[in-house]
UniProtKB/TrEMBL annotation:
Residues 1-29 form the signal peptide. Belongs to the bacterial solute-binding protein 1 family. Keywords: Signal, Transport. Gene3D superfamilies: Periplasmic binding protein-like II. This is ABC transporter substrate-binding protein. Residues 32-52 are annotated as: Disordered. It comes from the Bacteria. The lineage of its organism: Bacteria, Bacillati, Actinomycetota, Actinomycetes, Kitasatosporales.
C-alpha cells in the first residue's frame, strides 16, 4: 500500500520540518520532571473530560495484542483501564512477539484471535487485509480519525481506499540522544551536519568515552540508521522509489548511503564493544548504558526515536538536563524527518472492538498515555501540555506541525518478510553489514536479493 505520505515532495518541505524540529529542540534545554505537568494540576495518567461518546458494554470481554513490553505496556494498560471504566467492558492485554503477523497467524489458526491488534507496519496492515483477518473501521472510528488526524496519518492506515488502521502511536525516528556530561567534558557541540557529527564523535572519543551505542542485536534500529542517511542524502523521491522497490538496492544511491554509514559503523573504537559488542546489544541496553556510569558511561550517544525516553527513565538521568537530544544531522541537502507508528486494527468485528478503536483514535486515550511519558501521538487534538517535559512537548509540536510533510519508516512500508522479521531480510542484511562494514557491494547484493523475493519483482 502506498499512501499520500509516499508521494514525492520537494526537499524544501522536508527541510522546513527539520528546521522546525531543530528550533524546537534548541528551546528544550531543561525539563521540570515534576509530576504536575506544565501547571495543568493533573498527575501523570489523570484523565480529562470525555470528548468521545462510547456505548455501555457491560459484560463485554476484549483482548488487545501488541508487542509492547515494560513501561510502554504498563502505560497502555492504564489507557485500557480508562476504557473499562467508561464502558463496563473487560479488556485483557495479550503480549505478542515480533513479527506480530506471525503471532496473529498462530492465534487465528488456533481459533483464538485477539479482538484488536496494534500493528507496527503499514505492510502488516495490508497483509492482514489480504489474509482476510482485518475488518474495516466503522463510522464512529472513521469520524474520530477525521476529526483528530491529518490526512496523511489517515491514509497510511488505509488499504485500497478503505480505513483499516487507526494510528494510536507515532514515533519521531530522526533523533540522537546524548549524555550531557560527556559532551561538556569533551567540549563537543550539537552537530547539524554529518561531518559535524563525525567531529563530535572524535571529540567524545578523545575525551576517553566511546561515541556511540548501536543496538545491533535488534535489526530494526539498523534500518532506521540507514533510512535517515538515505532520506537526507538521496532525497524524498529516491526514498519513495526504494520504499516501493521501484529502484534496486544495487542502485548507486544505496551504495553512497551505506558507504556513509560505514564512516561510523566501520570504526570499531566508535562503537561500544566494537562491531561484535554492538551485535550483542539490544535496544534497551543501548540506551541505558549511555546514561549510566556518570561521566564515564559505555557510550556518549545513542540514536533512536522519542521513545528512548522510556529507557532513559529507567536510569537516574533526567531528560532535558542529564540527557539531551538533537535532530539527526543533515547528510545531504536537508536533515531527515522519518516517522513510524502503531495502528489499532480490528480482527474480530464487534460493537466493543469498534468502540475501543474509536476510543484509541480520540484525544482522551492518547492524552492519558502522553502524560505518562515515552509516547508520541499523531493525534493533533492532544494538548501539548499533556506531555511530561519540554523536550517531549517540542517533539510532539514538531510532528503535528509537520502535517503530511514527513516520510514513514521505509522498512515498515515493506513486506513483512523483508522489512519486519528478526533474522531475515533487511534486518539480517544490515546486521551482516554492521559485522563487516567494508563490504558495501555484498550488502547491496543481499538486500536486493531479499527485497526482490519479498516484493515479488525485480525492482
Amino acid at each position: 500500500m502506498h499512501s499520500k505520505i509516499s508521494t514525492c515532495r520537494p526537499h524544501r518541505a522536508v527541510t522546513a520540518v527539520a528546521a522546525l524540529l531543530a528550533g524546537a529542540l534548541a528551546l528544550s534545554a531543561c525539563s521540570s520532571g515534576d509530576d504536575d505537568k506544565e501547571g495543568t494540576g493533573q498527575k501523570p495518567g489523570a484523565t480529562t473530560g470525555s470528548t468521545v461518546s462510547l456505548p455501555k458494554l457491560d459484560g463485554a470481554k476484549l483482548e488487545v495484542a501488541a508487542v509492547w513490553t515494560g513501561g510502554e505496556q504498563a502505560n497502555f494498560k492504564k489507557v485500557l483501564a480508562e476504557f473499562e471504566k467508561r464502558t463496563g467492558a473487560s479488556v485483557t492485554f495479550v503480549p505478542a512477539q515480533d513479527p506480530i503477523i506471525n503471532f496473529l497467524g498462530s492465534k487465528i489458526a488456533g481459533g483464538q484471535p485477539p479482538d484488536v491488534a496494534l500493528l507496527p507496519q503499514p505492510g502488516a496492515i495490508k497483509q492482514a487485509v489480504q489474509k482476510g483477518w482485518a475488518k474495516p473501521l466503522g463510522a464512529e472510528a472513521v469520524k474520530e480519525l477525521a476529526k483528530n488526524y491529518s490526512q496523511g496519518w489517515q491514509d497510511i492506515g488505509k488499504v485500497d481506499g478503505k480505513q483499516y488502521g487507526a494510528y494510536y502511536k507515532a514515533a519521531n525516528k530522526s533523533l540522537i540522544w546524548y549524555n550531557t556530561q560527556v559532551f561538556e567534558n569533551a567540549g563537543a557541540k550539537e552537530p547539524k551536519t554529518w561531518q559535524e557529527l563525525l567531529t563530535a564523535s572524535q571529540a567524545v572519543y578523545d575525551s576517553g568515552v566511546t561515541p556511540f551505542s548501536v543496538a545491533g542485536a535488534d535489526g530494526w534500529p539498523l534500518t532506521d540508521w540507514f533510512e535517515n542517511i538515505y532520506l537526507s542524502q538521496a532525497g524524498p523521491q529516491k526514498y519513495d522509489q526504494l520504499a516501493q522497490h521501484k529502484i534496486k538496492w544495487t542502485d548507486p544511491s544505496v551504495k553512497q548511503a551505506l558507504t556513509t554509514l560505514a564512516q561510523l559503523w566501520g570504526k570499531k573504537d566508535y562503537l561500544a564493544g566494537g562491531q561484535k559488542g554492538a551485535l550483542q546489544t539490544e535496544f534497551p541496553q543501548s540506551v541505558t548504558q549511555t546514561f549510566t556510569g556518570g561521566d564515564q558511561p559505555k557510550s556518549g550517544m545513542v540514536y533512536e526515536g522519542d521513545f528512548v525516553q522510556v529507557n532513559i527513565g529507567e536510569t537516574k538521568s533526567k531528560v532535558g538536563t542529564d540527557a539531551k537530544v538533537f535532530p539527526f544531522p543533515a547528510v545531504g541537502d536537508s536533515a531527515p524527518v522519518v516517522s513510524g507508528g502503531d495502528a489499532a486494527v480490528i480482527l474480530k468485528d464487534s460493537k466493543a472492538a469498534q468502540a475501543l478503536v474509536t476510543f484509541l483514535a480520540s484525544p482522551d486515550a492518547a492524552t492519558i498515555q502522553a502524560r505518562l511519558g515515552g509516547y508520541l501521538s499523531p493525534n493533533k487534538n492532544v494538548p501539548l501540555s499533556a506531555y511530561p517535559n519540554a523536550v517531549q512537548q517540542k517533539i510532539a509540536k514538531a510532528l503535528i506541525e509537520a502535517g503530511d510533510d514527513f516520510r514513514f519508516d521505509m522498512s515498515d512500508q515493506a513486506p513483512q518478510a523483508f522489512g519486519g522479521t528478526p533474522g531475515k531480510g533487511e534486518w539480517k542484511d544490515l546486521q551482516d553489514f554492521l559485522r563487516n562494514p567494508g563490504d558495501v557491494a555484498g550488502a547491496q547484493a543481499k538486500l536486493e536479493r531479499d527485497a526482490a523475493a519479498a516484493y515479488g519483482n525485480g525492482g
